[in-house]
Amino acid sequence: MKALVTGAAGFIGSRLAGGLAGRGIEVRALAMPGEPVSHITEYASEILTGDLNDPWSLQGICRGVDLVFHLAARVTDWGSKEAFYRPILEGTRNLLKECAGVGARFVHVSSIAACGLGRHLKGMKEGDEARFSGVPYNDAKLEAERLVRSFHEQGLINAVIVRPANVTGPGSVWVRDIVERFRGLFVPFIDRGKYSASLVYVDNLVDGLILAGTTADAAGNTYHVRDDWDVTWNRYLTDLGAMVGRRPRFNIPFSVAWKLGEAFEAALTPLGIRPPITRLAAGVMGRDNDVDTTKAKTELGWSTRVSYEQALAEIRDWVDMHGE
Length: 324
Fold this sequence. Notes:
By secondary structure, this protein is an alpha/beta fold. It is about 40% helix and about 15% strand.
């Protein structure tokens, strides 16, 4: 069996490549031009260079593969609408066109953000209504999901959509960016950090992705993947801060954080300046996003394998290695 992994040199993609190789699945990795790939050479039998926004660079990329794991995307909490839509929506469209008719299982890695942040998502099931929120990352993810379903319903591909929660682990944006903020300015709580952090450890997610790719009856379905950890943002931020001798300071009510994010995005994004707070961050940290994961457990047999304590130990080692 052979799998194509887009975004293979990234945080999740590199762990997925390792997980696939460890299960005896041959890996064809797609990396961006100029992207470092030395860390995946031991897992990938082929490393191809291509840009999802350049259809010519994708020609033949899906030939001879049984599985396609599409992870490549813009992963950050700020940027213009075009900066998100071009890689997430148009890049996905180009890959779908290239994969159409090949016969491979297409695992599209979306996000719980596609459900529509800014409202509580606790208990939300895959079949419940997803909503546009006006946040470019969220909306682009939802548009991409609809595109994937359209290709599946037309019989052009065999697709499964996986919506991970907030992916944590060594090198995650939910580790790296937070630790950088602790070392630089300060990290506030939103609504006192009382809501669940809605985390999934990267290796637990990899388990879910591979199950989505190899479970025959998963075709045409969407799955939420989130760990069963009882961890609030208060605890998670406090634990990360302790790794660098800091702790969260101040509290911002959600409604204020959302409005501040909207204002900062409007003023700073056109100038190419990262806003100090965004609506995406407010929606993730100031609302309960514990979506329901029953479907992944019952239909895929997925479960949380790595505990929060084990995950923290791995993260702590990474933080220590990447000191100031």
